Amino acid sequence: MKKLLLGALLLLSSFVCFAQGTFVKKYTSMIAVSNNVKGEWQSTDITVVFNAKEVTDIVFYYPNGSTRTFHQITSPEKDKTTNGDTYQIVECLDESGDRVAIQLFDDDTCLRVIIDKGWFIEFHKD
Fold first, then answer.
1. What is the model's pTM?
2. Quick one: 113 exposed, middle or buried, by C-beta within 10 A (0-12, 13-18, 19+)?
């Protein structure tokens, strides 16, 4: 019985590790929205690494060589917009300790960092 239980736990842990594997997304444009007012579209070359170093950190790599790390503090939740677009969202703490939400759309073209209601940055693949 102990061997069966141990085998089941090992199998379950391999699924958990697989679900949290590292993956990378690249984005080529961005727009900031402040107080519900959209700014100008900007070209960029952002690389985002999810589950960096096999932990639930999300790391943004910017073209100038700087990085920004977000530490995930909630489990991912799946939902959909009023338009029917599906996404996953997690709450995170940035390096300054500020709380943000990171929303990854399932169509693989958009990532949104939500700072507060009406305040966010969207990254897109063109």
1. 0.78
2. buried
Q: CA–CA distance from 57 to each of 22, 52, 80, 102 (Å)?
A: 10, 5, 23, 11
Res 1 pLDDT > 80: no
pLDDT of residue 13: 39
Q: Coil, strand or helix: which one is 106?
A: coil
Which ranges constitute the DSSP H helices of the chain? 2-19
Name the β-bridge partners of 11: none
**Position of tokens 């900007």?**
42
Angle at the Cα of 101 from the Cα atoms of 95 and 105, rounded to 5 degrees:
125
| Residue 84 confidence class, pLDDT cut points 50, 70, 90 | very high
- Report strand pairing: 23-34 vs 42-52: antiparallel
43 neighbors 123 (Cβ within 8 angstroms): no
Average pLDDT over residues 6-28: 58
Euclidean distance between CA atoms 72 and 113, whole angstroms: 13
